[in-house]
């Protein structure tokens, strides 16, 4: 749950915070998602710093849907409430599944 919340959270107040957040995303991911985050890191950093939004994810429910002991992989389903505070404008909450 902690890694899922991290993947839905980011402090966009400045470039340093965005870089730290993107590093946390990579540290919380594996496989194809991790590879994609590494490839797009520089572009993502510029886009997110320019936007300046802050997001805080909170996992409200999660369950494993598959577990493979042989390969060391698992699949899960979850719902996450993401509180988004834009640099300008009204904050709001998004529910993600």
* Overall pLDDT metric: 96
Proportion of residues in β-strands:
25-35%
Report the sheet with the most strands, covering strand number, pairing sense and barrel closure: 3 strands, antiparallel
Q: Which structural category fits the helices and strands?
A: alpha+beta
CA radius of gyration is 15 Å
Q: Counting H and I runs of at least 4 residues, what is the number of helices?
A: 4
Please bin the fraction of helical residues: 25-40%
Number of strands: 3
Element-level helix/strand string: HHHHEEE
So what's the overall shape? flat
Q: Kindly, what is the distance between the CA atoms of the first and last residues, rounded to a whole number of angstroms?
A: 13 Å
- Taking pLDDT < 50 over at least 5 consecutive residues as the criterion, the unreliable ranges are none
Overall tally of structural domains: 1
Biggest sheet, spatial arrangement of strands: 1-2-3
How would you portray this structure in words?
This protein is an alpha+beta fold. The protein has one domain. It is 39% helix and 34% strand. It is built from four helices and three strands. The chain has a three-stranded antiparallel β-sheet with strand order 1-2-3. A hairpin with a 6-residue loop joins strand 2 and strand 3. Helix 2 (15-27) packs across helix 4. The longest helix is centred in the first third of the chain and has 13 residues, at 15-27. It is flat and about 45 Å long. The relative contact order is 0.19.
